[in-house]
Design goal:
By secondary structure, the chain is an alpha/beta fold. The protein has three domains: 171 residues, FAD/NAD(P)-binding domain (3-Layer(bba) Sandwich), CATH 3.50.50.60; 106 residues, FAD/NAD(P)-binding domain (3-Layer(bba) Sandwich), CATH 3.50.50.60; 108 residues, Enolase-like, domain 1. The protein contains 13 helices and 22 strands. Strand 9, helix 6 and strand 10 form a beta-alpha-beta unit. Helix 1 runs parallel beside helix 8 and helix 3 crosses helix 6. The chain binds flavin-adenine dinucleotide. Flavin-adenine dinucleotide (FAD) binds next to helix 1, strand 2, helix 2, helix 3 and strand 4. The site of flavin-adenine dinucleotide has 35 residues, from helix 1, strand 2, helix 2, helix 3 and strand 4.
């Protein structure tokens, strides 16, 4: 700090106003700490402005547009098309409203929101740059919640015109006629599925030998069959090489191929925003991937904590929010640890895919003996009424019956997985699930039926 520069003090400084950051700030303030939240763009972070919320809005629009074609099989004749200008206006209105909610929560909690880009200058001070001016804030604890950004591919630089990232897709005002999606993880598949329903001919290019490579192998396989049946081309074991403005060149098991497309979506993962934070000045080390290592109380050092996408684990908003609870408690001087029995993961494709807890492979690697129970959704009346009986529910348990994991492909899997997560967290057994009376006819019955099977 230069002599004469003014520095303010806040017990807790939170850097980043996404779900990890704003939840930390609100909770730390509720625990009696003075809190400043620094955000360089918009409150709500990626989740609210360029992730969870706009993507689910677009998916809802796409599902609605595709419904008439599906309902035709039930004898319902109708037509639907999306006016993307109005779709974008609606999405913006939803995001504005939710952002207003976050702003209101910060105000009511007494959190001071500072607009600007924060960097550490020491282990107890950050400097915030705002439109040419700077402000120094000293703290007892800083919580890094700066999130992540899309991983770039050197040969396919995003130009926001033909080569798009996920944020570009969510802002589309016209649907490309033909789209290649590079990346068969959850973001690529959700966007690819939505674009396909909105009328684009979609090819998914995935370098691994299955979709959703980080999840239970049967989930990716089942989803692939469904996507292919819908007309989405899925190329596995295939890498994207380059693009000449008319076609994407890929290399797969059958050699090289040019795929003529109007847009290429790069969705090959995300990298943590830790490289421009001056973390070295605060003595905070990062791993090779740029993630901040923290202990269960979310501490990276005595004064710096971290939550959300900048730390290890799945890059998901609910994980960030759960970690925020712990970080806030730690910063407020309480004993707390982040040690969930499971973190549910959901893929909002059609059909939806959801997992919580261990796969049989992971359980065995961890030395556990496991039993599995799988129920095809053809056994679920509700799934058939929804016109979708092709999925399954698989439960993974210890031989004693203690539930270790649940893996679902099918309608409303995103909602169903919460029951399984609760069961795992509560130490429930297959018998507990089977003997809990579930309403009929519902999709939730399929969890009890799988447990009973
Ligand atoms: P972020 O939400 O990334 O927020 C970080 C904030 O920090 C940003 O606002 C950024 O501007 C700010 N910032 C960064 N550096 C600085 C700095 N130096 N100074 C000040 N501010 C700074 N997750 C789900 O759980 N469900 C979903 O359905 C889902 N869908 C997604 C769909 C897409 C297309 C994408 C891209 C992501 C999706 N995610 C979803 C992931 C989810 O958005 C992230 O896991 C979540 O936003 C991470 O929260 P965070 O608080 O760690 O960081």
């Amino acid at each position: 700090m230069v002599v004469g520069e003014v520095s303010t003090f806040s017990e807790v400084v939170v850097i980043g106003g996404g779900p990890g950051g704003y939840a930390t700030a609100e909770r730390a303030a509720a625990l009696g700490r003075s809190v400043v939240l620094v955000e360089r763009e918009r409150l709500g972070g990626v989740c609210l402005n360029a992730g969870c919320i706009p993507s689910k809005a677009l998916i809802q629009v796409a599902n609605t547009v595709a419904l008439p074609a599906e309902a035709a099989a039930w004898g319902v004749e109708s037509d639907a098309r999306a006016d993307m200008e109005r779709v974008q206006a609606w999405m913006a209105a939803v995001m504005d409203r939710l952002r207003g909610d976050v702003e209101g929560r910060m105000r009511r909690a007494g959190v001071g929101v500072v607009r600007g880009t924060a960097r550490f200058s020491t282990a107890r001070r950050v400097v915030v740059a705002t439109n040419g001016s700077t402000q120094h804030i000293e703290f007892d604890h800083a919580v890094v919640a700066t999130g992540s950004r899309p991983t770039a591919l050197r040969a396919l630089a995003v130009d926001h015109a033909r080569i798009l990232d996920s944020t570009d897709v969510l802002a589309l005002r016209a649907i490309p006629r033909r789209t290649a999606v590079i990346g068969g993880g959850y973001i690529g598949l959700e966007l690819g599925c939505a674009l396909h329903k909105l009328g684009s001919a979609v090819t998914v290019v995935e370098i691994a030998d299955r979709l959703l490579p980080a999840m239970h192998p049967a989930l990716g396989g089942a989803l692939q069959r469904r996507l292919s049946a819908r007309g989405i081309e899925v190329l596995l074991g295939t890498s994207a090489l380059d693009d000449d403005g008319a076609a994407l060149r890929v290399r797969g098991p059958d050699g090289e191929r040019r795929i003529e497309v109007d847009a290429v979506v790069v969705a090959v993962g995300r990298r943590p925003n830790t490289d421009e934070l001056g973390l070295e000045r605060a003595g905070v080390p990062c791993d090779a991937a740029g993630r901040i290592a923290v202990d269960p109380s979310r501490r990276a050092t005595r004064t710096v904590l971290a939550v959300g996408d900048v730390t290890d684990g799945p890059g998901l908003a609910h994980k960030a929010t759960a970690e925020a609870e712990v970080a806030a408690a730690t910063a407020a001087g309480r004993r707390a640890a982040f040690a969930p029995a499971c973190i549910p993961e959901v893929v909002f494709t059609d059909p939806e895919v959801a997992s919580a807890g261990l796969t049989p492979e992971r359980a065995r690697e961890a030395g556990a003996e496991v039993v599995t129970r799988r129920l095809p959704l053809t056994a679920s009346a509700r799934a058939l009424l929804r016109g979708d009986g092709a999925g399954f529910v698989e439960l993974v348990a210890e031989p004693s019956g203690a539930l270790l994991g649940a893996h679902i492909v099918g309608p409303d899997a995103a909602e169903l997985i919460a029951e399984a997560a609760l069961a795992i967290e509560m130490g429930a057994t297959l018998e507990d699930l089977a003997l809990t009376i579930h309403p009929h006819p519902t999709l939730s019955e399929s969890l009890a039926m799988a447990a009973m099977s």
